[in-house]
């Protein structure tokens, strides 16, 4: 599992080093908060003595406070926001940053009315036995009459309650501040919540909620799709994955048109393809 690439540490943050990254942010917040209090007390003292002659204060100290105080406050604010965002994504919702972007993408597709059809098509493809008369009727209603809510169609399968998420990604509580504390697991296989379990006799909505993540197949499900291009695999936990292989001529295309076997372009990796 990869969360994001950190430009501060020039390192990718994933499952194994995620607790180290949060501890890194936490101690930055602690130290900058202490410095903020010290600077605030000193600035308040100088402000109280502002009517005294200037030679009572060193110019170097005033210059240092003028520069370092806003800089320290900026670091404290930005790192606190980053820390809270990480807690919100990973601990509260059980998602990595990349998976949060996937959820935002799915919400955009849902709001534009393009997601429901994709989810139904993927349900028929992954669970062909669920294509019963009643489920077909329900699918037709979803597409024409009844408009379900987003959370009735999309379930993130690796999200549990706050405490379980914290233990899963940070390890035992007594190791959260321990420099060598790491989570249990290999970063490749994760437990799934009960909503994601497939039951053949369930309703169409339950079948859609049990689709593997991302439920629409991701970008690769819309780029190139014919009979010989689809690769279906199952991981060790039994989760079915859908990937679409693209034509080989993509390997020799220009920077603007290049893509790999999974439909990813250079732009997806942060490369500015417009630069010469």
From TrEMBL:
<dbReference type="Pfam" id="PF01529">
    <property type="entry name" value="DHHC"/>
</dbReference>
<feature type="domain" description="Palmitoyltransferase DHHC">
    <location>
        <begin position="2"/>
        <end position="101"/>
    </location>
</feature>
<feature type="transmembrane region" description="Helical">
    <location>
        <begin position="62"/>
        <end position="84"/>
    </location>
</feature>
<keyword id="KW-0449">Lipoprotein</keyword>
<keyword id="KW-0012">Acyltransferase</keyword>
<keyword id="KW-1133">Transmembrane helix</keyword>
<feature type="transmembrane region" description="Helical">
    <location>
        <begin position="20"/>
        <end position="41"/>
    </location>
</feature>
<dbReference type="InterPro" id="IPR001594">
    <property type="entry name" value="Palmitoyltrfase_DHHC"/>
</dbReference>
<keyword id="KW-0812">Transmembrane</keyword>
<keyword id="KW-0808">Transferase</keyword>
<comment type="similarity">
    <text>Belongs to the DHHC palmitoyltransferase family.</text>
</comment>
<keyword id="KW-0564">Palmitate</keyword>
<keyword id="KW-0472">Membrane</keyword>
<dbReference type="GO" id="GO:0016020">
    <property type="term" value="C:membrane"/>
</dbReference>
<protein>
    <recommendedName>
        <fullName>Palmitoyltransferase</fullName>
        <ecNumber>2.3.1.225</ecNumber>
    </recommendedName>
</protein>
<dbReference type="GO" id="GO:0019706">
    <property type="term" value="F:protein-cysteine S-palmitoyltransferase activity"/>
</dbReference>
<dbReference type="InterPro" id="IPR039859">
    <property type="entry name" value="PFA4/ZDH16/20/ERF2-like"/>
</dbReference>
């Amino acid at each position: 599992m990869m969360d994001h690439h950190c430009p501060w540490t020039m390192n990718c943050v994933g499952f194994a080093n995620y607790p180290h990254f949060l501890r890194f942010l936490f101690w930055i917040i602690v130290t900058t908060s202490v410095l903020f209090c010290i600077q605030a007390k000193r600035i308040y003292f100088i402000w109280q003595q502002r009517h005294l002659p200037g030679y009572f204060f060193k110019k170097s100290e005033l210059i240092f406070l003028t520069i370092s105080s806003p800089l320290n406050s900026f670091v404290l604010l930005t790192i606190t926001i980053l820390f809270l965002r990480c807690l919100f994504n990973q601990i509260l919702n059980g998602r990595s940053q990349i998976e949060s972007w996937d959820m935002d993408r799915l919400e955009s597709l849902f709001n534009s009315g393009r997601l429901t059809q994709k989810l139904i098509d993927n349900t028929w493809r992954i669970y062909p036995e669920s294509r019963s008369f009643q489920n077909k009727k329900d699918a037709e209603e979803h597409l024409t009459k009844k408009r379900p809510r987003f959370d009735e169609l999309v379930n993130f399968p690796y999200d549990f309650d706050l405490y379980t998420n914290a233990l899963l990604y940070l390890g035992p509580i007594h190791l959260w501040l321990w420099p060598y504390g790491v989570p249990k697991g290999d970063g490749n296989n994760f437990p799934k919540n009960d909503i994601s379990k497939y039951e053949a006799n369930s309703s169409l909505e339950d079948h859609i909620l049990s689709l593997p993540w991302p439920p629409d197949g991701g970008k690769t499900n819309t780029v190139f799709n014919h009979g010989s291009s689809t690769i279906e695999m199952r991981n060790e936990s039994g989760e079915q994955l859908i990937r679409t292989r693209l034509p080989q001529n993509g390997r020799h295309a220009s920077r603007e048109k290049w893509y790999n076997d999974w439909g990813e372009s250079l732009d997806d990796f942060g490369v500015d393809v417009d630069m010469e």
